[in-house]
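Encode chain A's predicted structure.
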Amino acid sequence: MEKNTSSGFRTKSGICTITPEEISFARPDPTARGSSRTSPLAVLFASLFFGFGVFLILFGETLIGVIWVILGLALRWQQVRGNAAVHAPTIPRQAVRKIETHAPLWLLMPGYFVVWLEMGGKMFRQRIIVQGGKGEYLRAVELMRAAGLLQS
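Encoded structure for chain A:
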């Protein structure tokens, strides 16, 4: 791969560009926050868990109701935390140790990559969520293979 060659694909918050030196993330509009879209199915389940827990508490099943309420709140917290996560704008290629691929699950979950990197002697991971369905995911896999980040 030449030094000035770069390739990119769409992610949840913008564009991921792969160069020989780094993996970088850019938003189309630098003033915009990352996408705050949450899976409607996940929001539905969190609301149902919470509502069912409140229903049980109102009808005397306090312990089980509290458990359902906690489950609903925990699921919602994970959604908010995932949307508000701040990721590194660039990942140096020499820091990448391993990349895991996770294919999209129809209507449930988009395809994503988990990049394991080592910085300062510690292992970190960063998720790259691919936007655009299975076609864009397969394109991203091919771009990562061509860049030498994934083995066949």
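The chain has a mean pLDDT of 80.
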